[in-house]
Amino acid sequence: MNAERRPLLQSAAGGALLADALRAQAAHATAGRDAAGADAPDGSRDFDFWFGRWHVANERLKQRLVGSTEWEHFEATQECQPILGGIGNIDDFQTDWGGGFVGMTLRLFDLARREWSIYWASNRDGLLQPPVVGRFENGVGTFFGRDVHEGRPVLVRFLWSHDAPHRALWQQAFSTDEGASWETNWIMRMTRIAAAGAQA
Known about the structure:
This protein has a single domain, classed as Lipocalin, CATH 2.40.128.20. It is mainly β. Mean pLDDT is 85; it is low at 6-15 and 24-38. Helices cover 12% and strands 48% of the residues. It is built from one helix and ten strands. The chain has a ten-stranded antiparallel barrel.
């Protein structure tokens, strides 16, 4: 498996997947806003806490789905900004770990379904992954998708939470039994980097 969050499973289809996703967002935007109301808590602002620049302390399980308890630790920086008038966002992930790589996360909010789709790509392959999809409830974002790890089908889960404006937590887990049990294999603990000139 590559060093990135999950194996990249599709090649040329990735670009088409992104284009389809963007078209779908545009198609749903007007109808979704009319149905929900301009000020309704529809979930489209749930990632606003993530805007800005962050230091990321990573804990990554060295081997997955083999009962390993050995973790590797590395640092990264990540910066997020809104797109599409606020119903999407994009972030840039950079680290020197593993020889260094740059990753990108694209998040799009479906105004009709009131749920987020999260896509990942990196400079290792230049390919877009299939998304994980979900929403925030009671302050925790839970997102699911399907993938294959070393030939084994897995259910993938992302968990997002933040307990303060300057802290956030992301966790990835795999399941081989349709969610009956989970193995967490990646944890990111984020601390906001203050903007230049900002007071602590």
